[in-house]
Design brief:
By secondary structure, the chain is α/β, with parallel strands linked by helices. It has one domain: Alpha/Beta hydrolase fold, catalytic domain (Rossmann fold). The chain has a twelve-stranded mixed sheet with strand order 1-9-8-7-6-4-5-3-2-14-13-12, with helices on both faces. Strands 10-11 form a two-stranded antiparallel ribbon. α9 packs across α12 and α11 runs antiparallel to α12. The N terminus is likely disordered. One of its GO terms (biological process) is medium-chain fatty acid biosynthetic process.
Amino acid sequence: MGALLSLFVAMAHTPRLHFAQSPAAIRIRKEHSSTHGETPTLSALVASQCPSLFTRFRPAWWLSSGHLQTFYSAIGDFSNIDKVEYDRTLLRTVDGGTLGLDFTGPADPSELPADTPVVVVLHGLTGGSHESYVRAILAPACTPVVQGGLGYRAVVVNFRGCAGVPLTSPRLYSGGTTDDIRTALMYISATYPGAPLLGVGFSLGANVLVRYLAEEGDQSRLNAGCVLGSPWNFPANIDALESTFFRRTVYSRSLGQNLVTLMKRHLNSLSKFPDAPMTQAMAAVATMNRPLLTTFDDTMTRLCGGPSPPFPFPSGRDYYVWASGHDLLPKIRVPLLAINAADDPLVPMLPVDTGNAALSPWVVFSVTEGGGHLGWFEQASRFSAKRWITKPVLEWMKLVGNVVADTRRMKSLREADGFTKEEGRDDIGYVKVEGGGHVVGVEGQDGLLAGL
């Protein structure tokens, strides 16, 4: 018994927090100035408003390793908890693609003030709004304040072809392509012009969010961001993912097969584009059986994972180098909380592990000792677990949504050629199209590690 208790105590660690040498001074709303001062630093605000980042995360005793945490996140039954229902809006992009935006909140929008924060979610590799890790955040975030929630609105941006979104152009998505989230944010900011927009990205979606924030700088339509399980350095973490027989067989091949399964769902759609590189690559993809992730990316993603340029890339490796987000952290200009687990089997290499990581003054980087990939399960009762990560994410969302002042300098929108576009860019834009409907957010897509 004593040995078991010692093991449990050893599994409990306070997250390691990393800030820039001089954290940014944060403007806060007038109503909070008497409490926090006019311009407190990011580190001071986190210390006062995000206590979970300073308390120990204790993994459930039966989920003591990163592998077990990851498997439970992928195959656990979460269909009866964190239930979220959405109303889907379909947007047609300038290149003919389709984005699926799943909105959730009160049935009557007039129930909430115009400045109610909106959580904008980007999911993992082949996931969507149904994923349990998405619902674990959105269920409490959108619960009314009187019932213990934040009382926010939320929208999940489903990538092209994911979660039932039709594939209407010969182009896929990727971990480095930001035009689709940029387009979605144009629509969301126009729909809620007075609301703070708070980004939350998971895994692949986390890397997309980091790249968007770095590219936009102080003109970001997002007031703040939070990224969980970001893959950061693609080449280094892909190499680690395929460095052993176990990792290649269990992780890389499962992720590769999920992408093959996703593409096969859209065979009929691709037949409309017989000459497109995506359609030609599909002939090889259709014959694959549990390929390595690198095999799929070298066959398909490098060709059509985004607009041209920069696609196509000479190889999957070239795509990985371009897509990585770890070197972009110094360019962030809005508050960003990044959380990774040190025992994540999919992302063992983190920017802060090098000892000389360059962080923007706007970034706080938290590393938990346990948690796996999008797991972070702690014990709820004798034989049940709950996600610890919900607590620090909600504390962060409350801070950046209710306390931090809105300092965005967004570009104006205009109508051109039937699309809503951003000033200075003609290559991206949207028009709302028919379709969508009501979406019940429970587990709806199959495949091991499907949403990771």
